[in-house]
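Researcher: Please predict.
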Amino acid sequence: MLHKATDEQGAHYFDLLDIQKVLGHSDPATTMRSYLEPMHTDVLDRAAQILR
């Protein structure tokens, strides 16, 4: 639920490290592997526009 929480523009309220802290995981890889969906391509597309 935290990972899917976004504002009106689609920006996420919580990043991986925020979620890791809430869940009490010592390793962010545990959080990523267990709870987060794979990164959607729209994130990669938005990043590519900035990094050009």
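Model: The chain has one domain: 1-52.
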